[in-house]
Each structure stands twice: as C-alpha cells, then as structure tokens.
Specification:
Length: 218
C-alpha cells in the first residue's frame, strides 16, 4: 500500500514538473549578449556632463535586467557605454542635461530629458533626439496592443514623419538622424528641433513635447 502511494506520488510529481516545464517554455527566452552602445544626444547637442542611462527590455518593452549609466563625453553630445552585457536586445535610453540652444545661440538655462527605444540586435549606434522622443510613446502603445517591436517602430515612424510632412524619410530610423550629419535628414531634424524651441523655455518645451505626443497619438 505504501509502495503504491509512493509510486503514485512520483507520477503526480512528474506530471506537475512536466507541466511547469512546458509553461516556462512558453515564456520568452533571450541569450545574454554583449553590446557596445554609442551615439549622440541632440536637441541642440547635449553638453559634457549630461547624463544618459540605458535599460534592457524584453519584446513587450518590460524592464529586464540591470541598467547602465554614463555621461555625455563632449559638447557635441557624444556618449558611449562601452561593452556591456544585456539580458535582452531591446532597450530604453534616457538622457538628461543641458544642451546648446541653436535658436538663441547659447547654452540652455535649464535641463531637458529625451528618450529613445531601440533594438540593439539591429544596431548599436543610437542617436537620441526629439524625433525618437516623440515616437517613444506610440511604439509602447502599439507593442502593448500586440505588435512586435519592429512592426510598432515602423508604424510609429511612418505616422510621426507623416505628421511633420517628412514622408520621404520614413524608411530611415529617427535614431540614425544627427543634426551634424550634413544630410537632408540632418536638415529636417534641425528644422523640427529649432521650431519646437522657438519662444519656449526648457520647462515649456518639456510640457509642449508631452502635449504634442498626446496630440499626435490620441
């Protein structure tokens, strides 16, 4: 009798263990990978000493693993995290600091925060700017609605660039744009960045960007 109970218990445990294993297999699985992430932060360029962080995320854009922090290296907005181990390929970058106000021709009197979402398995050179910041919220919502990151990023980019009349650039990710690139994309970014700061303080710009996001993505 005891032997039967013992065997029965083992069978039940095996079934439970197998079931748990199958459930875990349904979850997402990423191989940790080392990425060397670098780029620029620009409104005008963020200046030396400004801060930037990067946070790995899963494909649902849920925070995963440790975050890394660094500082802007020079007055051209350049940053580098060096080689870091990431538990997932998707990431959020958040920069905060002073920047060169291209309209006033002087350093900003207040700080500004800009964000970007990126798939590091696609590219590790990432520029953070007003365009990446403006599409951030839309990408999140589309992923929450069931889209893959790639699909969400493509759609958000198309919608944002259409709103600004920049459809000709929609196939080039905003995180590749730089105001000092000397390209047509650079000119477009400069125009938008300058337009947003005209007659606005840094605090007013932060508020305006939030309202603009709500207006575009309502």
């Amino acid at each position: 009798m005891k032997l039967r109970l013992y065997i029965g218990g083992l069978v039940a445990f095996s079934v439970l263990f197998s079931s748990c294993g199958k459930d875990s297999e349904k979850g997402e699985s990423f191989e940790p990978h080392t990425y060397n992430v670098s780029g620029k932060v620009e409104k005008g360029p963020f200046v030396s000493g400004s801060t930037i962080t990067i946070q790995p995320m899963d494909s649902k854009l849920q925070v995963r693993g440790d975050f890394y922090s660094s500082t802007i290296q020079d007055d051209m907005g350049n940053f580098s995290f060096g080689s870091k181990l990431f538990e997932a390929p998707y990431a959020e970058l958040t920069a905060n600091g002073y920047f060169f106000n291209e309209v006033e021709g002087e350093l900003s009197s207040g700080t500004l925060s800009l964000r970007a979402l990126v798939d590091l398995s696609d590219k590790t050179t990432v520029n953070v700017n007003v365009l990446t910041h403006l599409k951030y919220q839309r990408v999140q919502r589309l992923v929450e609605g069931g889209m893959s990151f790639k699909e969400a990023n493509t759609q958000a980019q198309k919608e944002l660039f259409t709103a600004f009349g920049l459809q000709r650039y929609e196939d080039k990710d905003a995180s590749s744009f730089s105001i000092i690139g000397g390209t047509d994309e650079s000119a477009a970014l400069i125009a938008i960045s300058s337009l947003l700061i005209v007659d606005r303080s840094e605090a007013a710009l932060t508020e305006y960007l939030a309202k603009l996001c709500n207006c575009i993505w309502r």
